[in-house]
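Notebook entry, structure prediction.
Reason for the run: the old model in the group folder had no record of what sequence produced it. Starting over properly, with the input documented here first.
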Amino acid sequence: MTTEHPPTPGALARLAQVLAVLGGVLMLAVALVSSASVVLRWATTNPIQGDFEIVSIGGGLAVFLCLPWAQQRGANILVDSFTTHAPAWLNRALDGL
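New structure, fully documented this time:
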């Protein structure tokens, strides 16, 4: 059970937002590289060299660029199988970590 927090104003919030946008643009570029490689492989049997590495590194970097924004808003994924039946005070304490 995750509740999103409103964004905090300031330079760090703006930086997190800019990084998230860059992450989205990078993910779009990775999708285009992957698609172009598939089309080239089909059309010419000669795909983009190193496309697997480009997609792997680009996808990972895109995810990491979006993490500050997600952390700031509290939109990250929480595994709550342990805390589902825990008392409210323990959940608040763990959320503070």
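Summary: The mean pLDDT is 86.
The old model has been moved to the deprecated folder.
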